[in-house]
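Quick question about two entries, pasted in order.
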Amino acid sequence: IANNIGRIARIFGCVTTFKAYLDISSQPSKSTALRSELQLSGVSCSQVDMFAFAVDHPPPATVVLISGDRDYA
């Protein structure tokens, strides 16, 4: 999945940062395996602030946000 997301994101330009934010509290037994799989795909799993990204990367810059959280819509 991470490779497919990266391929689609490259349509918008060079991917300089690929971060994943996930709630692993509901399935702690799978968290280590999931984190390892993401890191092997080149995805960093540490939390960062999107506002800080916007400050550090002046326009034109693109953020691709995929979320199941309705609050982001």
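Here is the second entry:
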Amino acid sequence: QVCAQLCRRPCYCPWVPPRCPRGSPLVLDGCGCCKVCARRLGEPCDFLHVCDQSQGLVCDYSSAPAGTGGTCNFEDDEEGCEVNGRLYRDGEVFQPSCRIQCHCLDGGFTCIPLCQEDVRLPSPDCPFPRRVEIPGKCCPEWVCEGAQEQPRDARAAPGAVSPLLWSPCPPWGTEWSPCSATCGLGFASRVSNQNRLCRLETQRRLCSAGPCPALPAALPAVS
């Protein structure tokens, strides 16, 4: 009955489809006739202006007055996260940037860094360490400034050992720590010298301690 009242046959659609905001795909309207921008979480909706089903959204009329439109919400009251205009489902792991990784849980999200957070102190061969952005790489790296090379005669002196010559790096490190989370996504850390500068640094990696138990259902209110 609603379709007969709102849908015209044959279809009459604009020649140029609408330009949608970022994160809102073009979909067919409720009549299956013209292309419209899918409504996002929290946006108004009705029979013609449909929600983005690819994000698990449906038009929720539960809190709307009779005869009016609804609001786009997750189906079955499923909670999710919206970050930079994009929706993530509960339990989904995502990367807003190459430097952090996040976990959507219970309507909020927590993030951990993917770049190593080591600190380099000044040393004789690197008196002024500085962390800089490297083109083509996500994480910044340490570079040395102010290091002076020894004169060529001194490096070539018989029996002299040049500090600039490459030497093998004996591997050293601690075991990975237990996962920081008792369930779900967490991270483990260790101290190791397995890097191109052969210096001790704290390293992290993601770990999973298994799925978290489901929350108990809320008890009905007693009048």
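Reply: Helices lie at 2-6, 152-155. Residues 101 and 112 are 6 Å apart (CA to CA). Hope that helps.
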